[in-house]
Design brief:
By secondary structure, the chain is an alpha/beta fold. It is built from eleven helices and twelve strands.
């Protein structure tokens, strides 16, 4: 199954086993969801459901993964089962919590998971049905899993890969943040030494839709030419990194490693070198 689905395709999907997740983020986001969402969509919260935010971002970053048993409970509360067909959207072309939810669901072992191309805005243009208020649905039995299935890297892993020059580390933040010109979210500007910058926004066309898989394939093949084939993807807090992981999967590449702690952890950890390209 392609990781990307268009609004027109969603419009014509059978309703049996279909679960739509609204993963928008922002101030008063649950109220935003209650005001208007794709009909039948269930709300999933980045900070509460897709992360386990700790007291110190120097250990785990701003959006560490939750315990997998807790995530299993979240899926049960959302009515997700192993045969569910799950479609996720946000209003940032998948660059916020939608791609993170996709990665977590796939890493949990669920196969039929897709991102809505163009997100909320594309659904409005396509004329999908919308509703307001809470949706009613039945909970499902908790699915037992032992651990995340997709590859993860820790800060120590990344440091070791840098020393041994055996991986290509990709920073998907905006170029100005990577260069260290300014930092709107984390405490220090700059990037992990040795990381290259390929902003996640380059996965999208001028209309905010994902580039075609063959275009993405050609683009990343050229960008990664003569570099180690093993990839580690990171961003600010392990959320938008999943956008590039999804794009690489869409293009037919093996799913790369995710460094969840990302810049928010690295930049706060005492003694870690910080690079700038100003």
């Amino acid at each position: 199954m392609s990781p990307i689905i268009s609004s027109s395709q969603l419009k014509n999907l059978p309703q049996e086993n279909l679960i739509i997740l609204d993963a928008r983020v922002g101030k008063d986001v649950h109220q935003t969801y209650l005001a208007k969402h794709i009909k039948g969509a269930r709300f999933i919260d980045l900070d509460k459901d897709l992360a386990e935010i700790g007291e110190d971002a120097a250990f785990g970053g701003r959006h560490p993964l939750p315990d997998i048993a807790k995530f299993a409970e979240t899926l049960s509360n959302l009515g997700v089962s192993e045969d569910s067909h799950i479609v996720i959207y946000d209003d940032k072309n998948g660059a916020n919590a939608a791609a993170r939810a996709w990665w977590m669901l796939k890493s949990f072992g669920l196969e039929n998971v897709q991102i809505l191309d163009g997100g909320f805005q594309a659904a409005e243009k396509e004329g999908l049905d919308f509703s307001s208020g809470e949706e009613t649905f039945e909970k499902t039995s908790v699915i037992k899993k032992e651990g995340w299935l997709l590859p993860l890297k820790t800060l120590e892993d990344v440091e070791n890969e840098i020393i041994n020059h055996c991986s290509t580390i990709i920073d998907v933040r905006d170029a100005y943040r990577y260069r260290g010109e300014s930092e709107p979210i984390d405490l220090v500007a700059g990037h992990i030494p040795g990381a290259i910058n390929i902003p996640f926004s380059e996965n999208l066309d001028e209309n905010g839709n994902f580039l075609k898989p063959e275009v993405l394939k050609e683009k990343y093949t050229e960008l990664l030419k003569d570099k180690p084939q093993h990839l580690i993807i990171h961003c600010g807090s392990g959320v938008t990194a999943c956008h590039t992981i999804l794009a690489l999967d869409y293009a037919g590449f093996p799913i790369p490693d995710l460094y969840v702690g990302s810049w928010s952890e690295w930049s706060r950890r005492e003694g870690k070198e910080i690079a700038k390209d100003i």
